[in-house]
Structure formats: C-alpha cells, structure tokens
Design goal:
Blueprint (H helix, E strand, L loop, with lengths): L19 H15 L5 H4 L1 H27 L2 E8 L6 E4 L5 E4 L4 E7 L2 E14 L7 E6 L2 E5 L3 E7 L2 E8 L2 E5 L6 E3 L3 E6 L7 E2 L11 E8 H9 L6 E3 L8 E7 L3 H11 L2 E5 L5 E5 L2
Parallel strand pairs: 5-6, 15-18
Antiparallel strand pairs: 1-4, 2-3, 3-5, 4-5, 5-8, 6-7, 7-10, 8-9, 9-12, 10-11, 12-13, 14-16, 17-18
C-alpha cells in the first residue's frame, strides 16, 4: 500500500535570505534619513499651491482681458459708398443712424469698447445712439471727432474737415496737437492741417443737404462748385482761379445740379458753358 503524498514544503527563493521584515528593521534608520516624513505643516503645501496657482491664473486672466480691453481690438468692418447724385441712410446695429451724402465713402468698424467710423471722403451726418461704455468716434484724416451723445455732420475736404454740431456735444481733436475743442449746438469748426480756427455759428439752411437742398450764404464759389460736384457726373471747372472767391447766396436743388449751374449767371458775373464730354466750364463774363 502506497503512503499518502505530503504536500511540497515551500522553498525560499534564496537559501539563507532574511525575511523582508528583518531587512526593513536593519535599514529603517537609513530610510528615514533618505526619505523623511513631512511634518503636519508641510502636508498642507499641495492645497496651498493649488490655491496660489488659482490666484495666479485668475490674475493672468484678468491682465489678459484687461489688456484686450485696453487695446480695444476690432473684429468687423463694413464699407458704404454712394455714387454721384446718390444719398444713402445707414442704420447701425446699436441704433445709430448715418446719412451719407452723394459721392461719399464711409467705413464702419466694430471694436470691443468703441464704435468707430472712418470718413474716407465726402460728407455724412451721424445721429448717435448713447452708450456708457462704447464711445463713438469719427476719423477724417488727421481730424478725430468724439461723440458725447449727439447729432453732427462731418464734411471731409482732404486733410481738413468741417464739423457741424446740431444736438448734444462733440470734441474735435487734430493729430499731432494737444487738447480737444468742444462744440456747442449750432456751432461749426473747420479743423485739420493749417492754423487752428475758432468755432463759428452754423449758416442758416446748411443742414438741409440730407433733403437735397443746398443753401449758401456768402459762400465762395469754389466751395459751391465743390458741393455741386457731388451731384454732377461731369467735371465742373473754374476756368479762372479768381472766380473761386466770388460770393454766392441762394438755395439750390442738389438733385438737379445742371439747373443749379445754369442759374449761376443770374447771380454772378459769370458764363456757364457745357462741353460735349459732359463737363461744365465757368468763366468770367465780359
């Protein structure tokens, strides 16, 4: 009869090797020196670091957003142009309305903390919706008009622009010059390159261009021709430079510039000649 088989006795992996507990006991002091246990105060450092990290992140975000706000980045631009003899009304998203005169070019730019328009050429009337945190300004070459809740006109003439204020108040700045000139309702200012001028009263009827009526009171003929040119496809030419200083008073229909030009010999010592190319020449009457 065969004797029952005994279960095998476990063999150590290594003959004569000490147990793990004995190894830890032998080297406990060495391990403590190499890997000291942190005290209670140190145990809170990770939480404090997260708190400091959150604060720093918040500051960085605040600085970043503040920087974006300070730089006032733009994200959108629209161009509006009118042809000769065409007027156009533009309603902006904020409720402001712009009346664009004939032969004019305007850019409307949306910024984070401002509403900006650039009058590239021509004339426009701005009826601005109030906003406490987004100012409205018009750039016309070196001239900048800042709105403070107003209705005003800007008529650009190259590097000079005429600003007429109908309601509210505006500030007019010129690039390279300190300070700002404030206008009161009923005042106009010609600003830009050249000598600084003082605000003047607005001439009666000069604001009716939005309805096609051009009214002049002792206005130089050169200025009258410039206004009529917006409504006349052919060139209007003064054959003699001295004619530009002749004074014109009267009301003209801008939508019928040909008729307005034909009336000039009745109020001035001039002759008007129409050429085959569509141009109109004004000369002295002899």
């Amino acid at each position: 009869m065969t004797a029952p088989r005994r279960p095998p006795t476990p063999r150590p992996d290594r003959i004569g090797a000490p147990s793990p507990d004995r190894v830890l006991d032998q080297h406990r002091d060495t391990l403590k020196a190499l890997f000291p246990v942190p005290d209670a105060a140190q145990l809170y450092r990770p939480h404090r670091s997260r708190r400091i990290g959150g604060t720093v992140l918040g500051l960085l975000l605040a600085v970043g957003l503040g920087g974006i706000y300070a730089f006032d980045p733009g994200w959108q631009q629209h161009d509006y142009q009118t042809a000769i003899g065409e007027r156009r009304s533009v309603l902006l998203a904020d409720g402001s309305r712009i009346e664009l005169d004939a032969d004019s070019h305007l850019q409307v730019r949306s910024h984070l903390r401002s509403r900006r328009t650039v009058l590239v050429s021509g004339r426009a009337r701005f009826d601005v919706a109030p906003s406490r945190w987004r100012r409205f300004q018009v750039d016309a070459g070196p001239v900048q008009v800042r709105n403070y809740g107003t209705v005003f006109d800007v008529d650009r003439r190259g590097d000079r622009s005429e600003v007429r204020l109908w309601r509210g108040k505006v500030g007019v700045r010129v690039a390279g010059r300190d300070g700002e000139q404030r206008l009161h309702p009923g005042q106009q200012l010609l600003a830009g390159t050249g000598p600084v001028q003082q605000p003047q009263p607005i001439a009666t009827g000069s604001g009716e261009w939005t309805e096609g009526r051009l009214q002049f009171a002792q206005t130089p003929l050169g200025e009258v021709v410039r206004s009529l040119q917006r409504y006349h496809h052919g060139a209007i030419v003064l054959d003699e430079p001295g004619l530009a200083t002749l004074q014109v008073s009267g009301v003209f229909d801008g939508d019928h510039a040909v008729t307005a030009l034909a009336l000039l010999p009745e109020i001035l010592p001039v002759a008007v000649h129409r050429r085959d190319d569509g141009s109109v020449h004004i000369s002295a009457r002899h």
